[in-house]
Predict the structure.
Amino acid sequence: MAKTDFTLHIAPITVELAPNRILSTIGYNGTSPGPLLRMKEGAPVTVNVINDTDVPEFVHFHGLLISSEVDGSEEEGSPAVPPHGSQRYQFTPKPAGTRWYHTHTMAMDDLHRGSYTGMFGFLIIEGANDPGRFDQEHYLALRDWEPYFTNQSMDNDDLDPAQAQPEKPAVLDTRPVGLEVAADIFSINDKALGAGEPIRVNSGERVLFHFLNASAIENRHLALPGHKFNVIAMDGNPVPTQAAVDVLMLGPGERIDAIVEMNQPGVWILGAPEDPVREGGLGIVIEYANQHRTPQWTPPPKSVWDYTIFGNSSGFGKSSGFGKPQPQAAPTERLDMVFEKVPRGAGKFNSFTVNGKSYPHDQEFLLKQGTRYRLTFHNRTDDAHPLHVHRHQLEIVEIYGKATSGVIKDTFVVPTYGRASVDFTADQPGPTLFHCHIQQHMDFGFKALLRYS
Ligand SMILES: [Cu+2]
């Protein structure tokens, strides 16, 4: 048997967000986030997962181009980690970049299962990507805790681009909607704002941040007063055009690598622009040397998130000059997915359909190996959804009614009533799961299985 390179031990843990706020959950190796797994691109690894709970578990390696057998998805036929048993995953990690791993079990109406737990962590694949000069780096995962059901909409999608909403139906469905999941307690990694050590910086330093939205629930925004985020990679993939922005947006599952030039001495809060979210814990203090005062927060300039400014079509920003994706052949086949929400379609909860049908869409999405596809997502719902395709890389080619190229993602947010197209090459045989990365949406129908013919 191959030697074990990494061991993940699933068991109940406690997380001390603050001295007066200690949570019980499930985690990997006694902590949440779990250990940072550092792998080398192209060097085979064995991950041994030991499950010390009473239920089957799946560990999904998110953003990796690996086979269905080890992808960690029940729908794709990966074997479960049995209760009080273990499972070995052997694969060759690729591509280089900021990836992550997390549980992929269903939660349904149990808010103590699946991605509501502390089972997630960063997975870094080291390779040829060159982030440029930096003085220190930090891995920051955004989380919410102690989720509950509510019929009060908590959406904060107002920072999304104002747009035509091409998929908005002429007549809106006004039936009462079901219970949704919300949370009021937040953290970055395992600490609420102010409870952990600050990030200590010197004026003039370049700090590389690896951000991950590990929430099961909601898209998140981040800002750092007086500073800009120079985005160099999204979902671990270098962007064709590096651009500096005031506010980042990450849907659940998304990652952003960004360099911040520390040139505003003071003590600042890096956190969520929405007051209840930041005051609920989603933030971390940035403290310059020899600065002693209360951490400052000022609202960021009004800002909209737009993936296309990082693409090849953009006229501003500076070319990253590394890892630039090769121009791809034009797609020869088309696929369409239409998403609709059925209010209270699952009893107390809403359900979702893809092309008017429920999972698993037998034989509906058949891929021919080696073919490049254009997949268009039609979001006929009143939410912005983080869409994720397993084991493949997606090139955004149209979003917000704008064309772009070269932005390579595994997860991206399709706006409310919006439309987006991605191109991908079917070069990863095996069942392939597509789903919304909001746990409740996935559990209640927002998913489909793509198969190779
Ligand atoms: Cu969703």
Remarks:
- The longest helix spans residues 275-279.
- The mean pLDDT is 94.
- The pocket of copper (II) ion is lined by residues 383, 385, 436, 438, 441, 446 (CB under 6 Å).
